[in-house]
Amino acid sequence: MNNQIKVKKKLAKEGLLPLHPLKSTPIISDKKVKFQLAIFIAIFSFALYINSIDSDYVLDDAAVIVQNSVVSKGLKGIPTLLQTENWYGYSEGIRGPMYRPASMVMFAIEWHFFPNNPHVSHFINVLLYSATCFLLFILLCNLFENKNLLLPFVCTLLYATHPIHTEVVDNIKSRDELLCFFFSIIATLFFLKYYSNKITSSLLFACLFYFLSLLSKESGITFLAVIPIIFFFFKEIDLKKIGIIVLSLVMVSSIYLLIRQSIIAAMPVVAQIQLIDNSLLGSENNSVRIATAFYILLQYFKLLIFPHPLSHDYSFAQISLQSLSSPPAIAAFLICIFLAIYAAMEMRKKTIVAFAIIFFFITVAPVSNIFLLIGSTMAERFMYTPSLAFCIVLALILLKVFKRNINHAPATGSNNSFLQMRL
User: In this structure, is residue 262 part of a structural domain?
Assistant: First the structure.
């Protein structure tokens, strides 16, 4: 016994054993710490926008709620909402190529039980934002499972607090953006679950929520590319499982596109994009349109880095047309080329920065006006999903500046706490 004590004392002096072992120290698992942080993020993000609950209906809320004859029917209007495009109940004879029934059905339900009550709708927006931030943290913890827990935590906090999201949360009409990203995150989590357990129900739920994201907004289809890229960067490659997931994504996307096309085609008149909404329609040629589109990307970069001043309207006479020789357009083009080359070079290493760059380009593509003209010149709501890429990179930079090592081995029963994480 004495020999054992001597050996322990010797090991303690050499730093291999603690001199005074802690007694009755509660062991908090990583899982519990993550849940605590997720709850904190949810409460924090809700508190950020709680003042918006007292707001009224504004701007496009009239088109989708207040003056929408179908939504005002409440539950009785739901069948019509599922079979028509977004503007059907607002302006007879004018139709737009938008099929987003998820948010419209929610508005009808809210109007049925709480007619002409914007505060309930604002509350739901804030609640959805809070839930999105909660799930985003859970998702990032999954993707960065071998990294310091500070990385997903700081990244999610940056996302939750970024002012560029104000338009989406404060504007009831932007429920489509909120739902699209919310359902996309849930779908991704279920695909990840299927990848680890190969349970069919996980795959079915993943497909269901991906379909709901598409029914929320067309930009949800970007996750057809985002989800496979997530597996490439963060998981061990299993071609069979990835093949099943990609096939499922393609099948769901195809079903959605067929439904959307049949409904849009059935509308008597489809409204054309107006110059007052998208200044790029005034472009003399494609080179001017492309140059201006890259200039707009530069504005997005600027707002992500320094979000001031913010505006709800970037339509008529807000964005000047650019030529291929204009310095801002050239700068934007060079930045995009540099980022693309850097991401391509880092893909083999599967770095987080490379993933963030690719994620940004994929999610910004449908709203960039580079590949096709959309109904708006520019909008801060278009950065709701792409801004995650910026937050990931900024989190990495901040942790490096404050000399926090983002790499760590999985913890094994340590006295972690909510405020003291040594991971």
Answer: yes
Residue 423, domain member (yes or no): no
**Token couple for 78:** 């739901």
SS3 25: coil
User: What's the sign of the alpha-carbon dihedral 312, 318, 323, 326?
Assistant: negative
20 occurs within a structural domain: no
Q: What is the pLDDT of residues 143-181, one digit of tens each?
A: 998 888 999 999 999 999 999 999 999 999 999 999 999
d(CA 71, CA 53): 21
Contacts 24+ apart (CB under 8 A), 194-198: 194/241, 194/245, 195/231, 195/235, 195/238, 195/241, 195/245, 198/241
* 416: in domain: no
Distance CA 297, CA 280 (A): 13
Q: What is the pLDDT of residue 385?
A: 98
Q: How many domains does the chain have?
A: 1
Give 28's strand partners.
415
Least confident of 99-108, 304-313, 412-421: 412-421
- Give the pLDDT score at 123: 98
**For 392-402, how does the pLDDT look when each residue is reduced to its tens digit (9 = 90+)?**
999 999 999 99
Reference 226, options 394, 98, 388; nearest CA is 388
